[in-house]
Amino acid sequence: MRSAPDPSTKSRSMDKLVAKLSNHVALERGDIDAIERAFSRDVRLLDDRMPIIEAGEKPRAIHVLLDGWAVREVAVAAGRRQIVSILVAGDVVDFNAFMMERADMDVRTVGRASVANIDRTALSRLNQESSRVGQALWWETMVGASTQREWSANIAARRAEPRIANLLCNLFARMMLVGGVEGNAMACPLTQGDLANACGLTQEHLNRTLRGLRASGMVEIRPGVIHLPEPERLAAIADFSPAHLHCANGDLFFAVKRDAAPTEDVSLVLASAV
Description:
This protein is of the alpha+beta class. It folds into two domains: 7-148, Sandwich (Jelly Rolls); 158-273, Orthogonal Bundle (Arc Repressor Mutant, subunit A). Helices cover 37% and strands 20% of the residues. It is built from eight helices and ten strands. It has helices at residues 15-22, 29-39, 120-129, 131-157, 160-176, 192-199, 203-215, 231-238; strands at 43-46, 51-53, 62-75, 81-87, 106-118, 185-187, 220-222, 225-227, 256-257, 267-268. The strands form three sheets. Strands 1, 2, 3, 4 and 5 form a five-stranded antiparallel sheet that branches. Strands 6-8-7 form a three-stranded antiparallel sheet, with no helix packed on it. β7 (220-222) and β8 (225-227) form a beta hairpin. It starts with 14 loop residues before the first helix and ends in a 6-residue tail after the last strand. 37% of the residues are buried. The model is unreliable at 1-11 and 259-274 (pLDDT under 50).
């Protein structure tokens, strides 16, 4: 069951959403004010594992994750649910909602989350008030599609260790872009069961692989926190490139430079040198 609107969330800062959109378009004060007006009208605070969208329902609004985490899931055989993407603060959950007759997936929170709903009228008004915000939202749809392609390639083409490393680097980079990383650590409510599901692995296989990454000093996972002491090394193992995030502002301090032709050496590039 969905929670009732929480009045205290309506005055919540839109910092993470603004940070996300600012990665694509230079927003001015008037643009930020327009975002705050549009996305603060209908905000809900949802508890852990609560639905944002349920498969089969008729979409009436676009949902934006202002704070917290969520997963997109698809029902598969024998009642199992497969995680097909992970959402972090600042992500637009379902920008194509107004084009769908019925939702074709479930989206639920992981941990507590703050979710803004914006209907078609409010979205049209926002686009009229600020063309830059409209442009940034369209950029965000491109990044979402690109991120999903990267997700599919990671699951299909990589062995367990680089697959897990790539997912962790992806989440780390996306959290960096909204100011969610401090001291190479990010708050993360995902369980090891969630990570195994997202990587298409059994939990035993995931745990065994994570033990190796821990032993190498590249990953530390505590309840509610993921710490990457040496993200450059992890990025090399993962063959992780943030190109799919289309980030132009240089906020990522680690990346992997991919040459036109594959080579044996992977060159790590600091953002300061980009």
